[in-house]
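Help needed: design a sequence for this.
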């Protein structure tokens, strides 16, 4: 079991099935770069009884979402969408979603949800 940032590479089959089409070196590059981009947004992790940090699942998802975004940007160049035959999806919201998983927005006024 190899961990890159917060993500164990064995979990990629479930979290990012398309990563199977990438080389191991590319996966490592995207996961390392996404960890470096996500880590400053994450608050300090809580520590478990053994003194090791407890990494929330949302942080792992954020790192994978950001890695997907980087991979898509490399495939499409400067275009903001990808997709065959006129069907397109935007890749930039993955970065915003990843950041919201790391540091959820809270309402400006207490008591509002």
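Sure. Designed sequence:
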């Amino acid at each position: 079991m190899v961990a890159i940032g917060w993500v164990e590479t064995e979990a990629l089959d479930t979290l990012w099935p398309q990563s199977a089409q990438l080389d191991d070196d590319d996966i490592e590059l995207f996961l390392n770069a996404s960890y470096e981009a996500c880590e400053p947004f994450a608050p300090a992790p809580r520590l478990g009884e053994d003194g090791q940090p407890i990494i929330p699942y949302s942080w792992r998802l954020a790192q994978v979402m950001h890695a997907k975004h980087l991979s898509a940007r490399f495939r499409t160049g400067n275009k903001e969408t990808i997709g065959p035959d006129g069907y397109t999806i935007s890749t930039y919201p993955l970065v915003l979603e990843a950041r919201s998983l790391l540091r959820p927005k809270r309402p400006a006024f207490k008591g509002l949800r």
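Strands lie at 3-4, 7-8, 46-47, 53-54, 81-82, 89-90.
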